[in-house]
Amino acid sequence: MAKILPLILQLIFVAGGVFAGFAIKPSNAPADAHAASEDKHKEEKKAHGGGKKDKGEKEDEKSSGAISVSYVKFGRQFVVPILAENTPSHVVVLDINIEMPSGASESVYPLEPKLRDALLTVLFRLSNEGKLGPDMLVSSNMEALRAELLYAAQSIIGDKAKRILILNIARQRM
Fold first, then answer.
1. Residue 158: what pLDDT?
2. Which residues of 64-102 are buried (b: 16+ CB within 10 A; e: fewer)?
3. N or C terminus of the chain: which is more exposed, having fewer CB within 10 Å?
């Protein structure tokens, strides 16, 4: 029994990890390898300027009058633990994009690790200050959060960062 118990515990923890991975998987991730290869093919086609866009394919660059913008989309969501009495009680999951002038987003992708680190530093600080609590969705708190994230983004990529968009935000009990 003493030899079997560690194996059973390992299986339970592995199953829990797999379940958690599926639970927090971004909704915009391809469901299978075939879909991922199709997405890669579409991106390569766009990069080389060939072909028309498929009906379901979204355009990263939007035009509003004479000004066109593009968006830096992070490959993963931002996950921030919320502590209560030095114990994680909740996690906040955010899906963040950065609005930039058209064409500027390509120069930002090599800086994504530094940019992600700067944004996470702000999010962790706000978590420690209690600003990601239950009232974080109040309009004034959301604007303050966007302003602090924009300041952090501009410290890495400069004035190219125009606006922070929070596409999804969820607070989940642990």
1. 93
2. eeeeebbebebeebbebebeeeeeeebbbebbbbbbbee
3. N
